[in-house]
Specification:
348 residues, alpha/beta, seven-stranded mixed sheet, 28% helix, globular, binds zinc ion
């Protein structure tokens, strides 16, 4: 049997027993060894999610071992994975044939969202041929399962940083000290960019400083004044919004210099309208952009970054929970504790 965590109502998770999935042609079934919590899961836990009507299985950042391999699919390329292999995947893949896929914008693929898989908070999860063909890798031995599960969030950040266009030597403000903020600051630094991480949680800022990141504590410093003081009074070259808060979205354009770029990484509820000063956009040529999801190349780059340990991901995992205690993990996140938690179905 496979235990599967189901979100049945806001703040209510139930563990159900299902039979272990039988893989379709070209698919594999993975025995989950680590599944990470993230902001989307927490949002769904708090208020539901339009793309995840309840009851729903959830969890999408995972890695594990191949438990079973489905029959050959004559229409698909052989994936080469065998029972017992340790693998790391993301939960989506572009189709490769639609207008956007053919124009280098795989993240906007017509079917990438409709075909994504959810349900990594479970003993087993099926990974379809489409994902195996493009977005699944053998896990390097010296990478832990929990570290390997960063493939998906890191791919989002790789895409975001590429979308921004990074100039070595520039100063980029990262708004938000959660997992995505900490990943952004580290990836930017890899590109020779000076990242300034703005946050208000003491333990997260402490962690950022332990990773040698430059921080602004928004509880004790005025964010705008602190940014101006560090940028010769001009403002940052760019700002990346990683909180998903309407208030921060509306503040973000004030933090960049004339000619700067604001990138909205943290999504807001889909009905949200935001207001900006038109003069900042027109007279100051501030550009507003919004990166979404990622394509296959970003997954490949994220894999290399994890394999080669270009950035630190293990410190972002505050704690590991047994799968049966997933409700405790989300109650703690809801309470503002921790950065990311790892669910380990095999832990006692
Ligand atoms: Zn497509």
């Amino acid at each position: 049997m496979s235990r599967v965590a189901m979100l049945i109502a806001p703040h209510r998770i139930e563990i159900r027993e299902e039979s272990i999935p039988t893989p379709s042609p070209g698919a594999i079934v993975v025995r989950v060894r680590a599944a990470l919590t993230d902001g989307t899961d927490l949002k769904a836990y708090r208020r539901g999610h339009p793309q995840m009507p309840m009851p729903t299985r959830f969890g999408h950042e995972f890695s594990g071992d191949v438990a079973t391999v489905g029959p050959l699919d004559p229409a698909a390329q052989p994936h080469g994975f065998a029972v017992g292999d340790a693998v790391m995947c993301v939960h989506s893949a572009p189709c490769g044939a639609c207008y956007w896929c053919l124009h280098g914008e795989e993240e906007l693929c017509e079917t990438i969202m409709a075909t994504k898989i959810l349900g990594a908070y479970a003993d087993y999860i099926e990974v379809p041929a489409r994902i195996l063909a493009r977005n699944c890798y053998a896990k390097p031995k010296d990478l832990s399962y929990a570290e390997a599960a960063f493939l998906e969030p890191l791919a989002c950040v790789v895409h975001s940083v590429e979308f921004l266009g990074h100039k070595p030597g520039s100063t980029v403000v990262v708004l938000g000290d959660g997992g995505f903020g900490l990943l952004h600051a580290q990836v930017l630094r890899r590109h020779g960019v000076h990242a300034l991480l703005v946050g208000r949680r003491p333990e997260r800022l402490e962690l950022a400083r332990s990773l040698d990141l430059d921080t602004i504590d928004a509880r004790t410093e005025l964010t705008l004044a602190a940014i101006l003081a560090r940028t010769g009074g001009r403002g940052a070259d760019a700002a990346i919004e990683c909180t998903g808060s309407q208030e921060v979205w509306q503040q973000a354009p004030s933090y960049v210099r004339r000619g700067g770029v604001v990138s909205f990484f943290g999504g807001l509820p889909s009905s949200t309208n935001v207001e900006f000063s038109s003069s900042r956009l027109h007279y100051d040529e501030v550009r507003l952009i919004g990166p979404f999801h990622f394509g296959t190349k970003s997954v490949g780059r994220a894999f290399e970054m994890l394999r080669d340990r270009e950035i630190a991901v293990a410190p972002l995992i505050t704690r590991t929970f047994e799968l049966a205690r997933i409700s405790d993990a989300f109650a703690a996140l809801d309470n503002g504790e921790g950065i990311k938690f790892a669910m380990d179905p095999s832990a006692a």
